[in-house]
Design brief:
heterodimer, A: alpha+beta, Sufe protein. Chain: A, four-stranded mixed beta sheet, globular, B: alpha/beta, Aspartate Aminotransferase, domain 1, Aspartate Aminotransferase, domain 2, 2 domains, seven-stranded mixed beta sheet, four-stranded antiparallel beta sheet, 13 helices
């Protein structure tokens, strides 16, 4: 059973969903934001410590499916040390990967390419993107509450 | 002859069930969301458009007469189905949600004042919470909730007794919980409310198509149901209201059909139930609902109830053998659905993986977010049955769930 799903639930994804990195509340974040997927009830809070426009620390707390948790976990690793501009570029690349299944030449995705199977499962696109939308809201200047709907 | 048909033979009446999903035979276990439709109901819909389509209550021509007669015959049929005293006690709506909103916005606005209590239960669907919150905001009435006890999901009846002694104006509760499978003792609770002069509304979305629902036995003032959860089309629902109450209520939407006379500055209302049905109604779906009600009674609602209980008990017992599972709702005497939660696998992963094997479950908060919060879970997985489901299908679900647990290394 589930041969078709190995693309989606790659071993790295299962591993991160079971043992998410950088999980938990942050005591003294310099910024944070909430994300919600009202339809399925997934929710996330992302915390970050910024030095100028550089992201020093990122943590998250929330509840959702395996894709959601793995995406949030791997995102926290990927964003650490990036500037706001670099994180925006990475988000655009990740967004394209999740929604179209393609990655531009010379991209910065690295390990995040394991999410390349998500675009074949349209119902799961929002699960993979929720944490990123919340993180972009936290480190950016826009609304501090995001919703996938 | 039809009585001799076994329930599994009834599967053949549902063309949709005979298909493969992701290459596997479909196992449809999302009946609490909507039931499938038998061919006779689909035929009734298309026959109406092929032969009888016309507007109702207006025409003098033959087609309009046919459409009007079939439309009003459905009202008679629905009254019989619910054992209302007369067809005038049946209002057609879009569904359970609209039925409840109608009561909130007509009876509620006319009767509630600041300090009055609207009593609900903790297991209500959003459709039996939000309309009352909106009404409470407008009138200054307060909400109170009968607690649900533990994972078994039964109402705290002692607490209900106490709460009913507050200045309660309305007690609105579900007959069967869509999230737990609990069957509430609605007749007892309505009797207690009536003794105190409290108006009652029973949400029958999950019960009307699954067991006998008798307005005289239940003794409620209002009862709401949806056609699409009982083999009928989407977009047609029922509101039963006790005649005196409907009579005293102000109308709801204004327009054609709900008036007896219109002048530029004022109008007079039509009789009940027509004063609650402004505009051209959902004629085709209403007429097809008649066929659905006939179909259910031909099978026998006692048989459906019995089958629901057997399948749900079987599913509950088999699920209980899986590791790290948390089951919601009563172990015994449940309605035809089972709600469960794996400690380490999210419901959306469960439901998506089941779907890849052709098994249609529901995963989420089931429009009962406050109840999910009370239980400390964001979502559960739910299997909900109807008379066409079989124990073999439950076995397939269990096999799939075991494989899901294995996949996640749980």
């Amino acid at each position: 059973m589930f041969d078709d799903l190995n693309d989606l639930y790659q071993q790295v994804i299962l591993d991160h969903s079971k043992k998410p990195r950088n999980y938990g509340r942050m005591e003294h974040p310099t910024c944070d934001a909430c994300g919600k997927n009202p339809l399925c009830g997934d929710q996330i809070q992302v915390f970050a410590v910024m030095d100028g426009d550089k992201i020093l620390e990122v943590k998250f707390e929330g509840d959702g499916c395996a894709i959601f948790k793995a995406s949030a976990s791997m995102m926290t690793d990927a964003l650490k040390g990036k500037t706001q501009a670099e994180s925006n570029v990475l988000f655009d690349e990740f967004h394209e990967l999740i929604t179209k299944g393609t990655a531009p030449e010379g991209n910065h995705l690295g390990k995040l390419e394991v999410f390349g199977g998500v675009n074949r499962f349209p119902a799961r696109v929002k699960c993979a993107l929720l944490s990123w939308r919340a993180a972009m809201a936290a480190v950016g200047t826009g609304e501090k509450t995001v919703s996938t709907e | 002859m039809s009585e001799t048909l076994s329930l599994s033979e009834r599967r053949a009446d549902f063309p949709i069930l005979d298909q493969k999903v992701h290459g596997r035979p479909l196992v449809y276990l999302d009946n609490a969301a909507t039931s499938q439709k038998p061919r006779v109901v689909i035929d009734a819909l298309s026959n109406y458009y092929l032969r009888d389509n016309a507007n109702v209550h207006r025409g003098i021509h033959e087609l309009s007469n046919r459409a009007s007669a079939a439309f009003e015959n459905t009202r008679e049929r629905a009254a019989k189905f619910l054992n209302a005293k007369s067809a005038e006690e049946i209002v057609f709506t879009r569904g359970t949600t609209e039925s409840i909103n109608l009561v909130a916005q007509t009876w509620g606005l006319a009767n509630l004042k600041p300090g009055d209590v609207i009593l609900l239960t903790e297991m209500e669907h959003h459709s039996n919470i939000v309309p009352w919150q909106m009404l409470a905001k407008r009138t200054g009435a307060k909400l109170a909730f009968v607690p649900v006890m533990g994972d078994e999901g039964l109402l705290d009846l002692a607490a209900a007794d106490q709460l009913l002694d507050a200045p309660v104006k309305l007690f609105a509760l579900t007959h069967i919980s869509n999230a737990l499978g609990t069957v509430n003792p609605v007749a007892d609770l309505c009797a207690k409310a009536r003794k105190r002069g409290i108006v009652t509304l029973v949400d029958g979305a999950q019960s009307a198509g699954h067991r006998r629902v008798d307005m005289q036995e239940i003794g409620c003032d209002f009862f709401a149901a949806s056609g699409h959860k009982m083999c009928g089309p989407t977009g047609i629902g029922l509101l039963y209201g006790r005649h005196e109450l409907l009579e005293a209520m102000p109308p709801w939407q204004g327009g054609g059909d709900m008036i007896s006379n219109v002048d530029y500055f004022e109008s007079a209302w039509n009789k009940v139930p027509h004063k609650f049905e402004a505009g051209t109604p959902n004629i085709a779906d209403t007429i097809a609902l008649h066929t659905a009600l006939d179909y259910l009674d031909e099978i026998g609602r006692d048989r459906i109830e019995h089958h629901d209980l057997e399948l749900a008990s079987y599913a509950y017992d088999r699920l209980a053998t899986l590791p790290r599972i948390r089951l919601f709702g009563p172990a015994k005497g449940r309605a035809g659905l089972v709600s469960f939660h794996f400690a380490d696998i999210h419901a959306h992963d469960v439901v998506m993986m089941a779907d890849m094997e052709g098994v249609a479950l529901r995963g989420g908060h089931h429009c009962t977010q406050p109840l999910m919060k009370k239980y400390g879970v964001s979502s559960t997985s739910r299997a909900s049955f109807y008379f066409y489901n079989t124990t073999q299908e439950v076995d397939r679900m269990i096999d799939v769930l075991k494989a899901v647990q294995k996949f996640f290394g749980a």
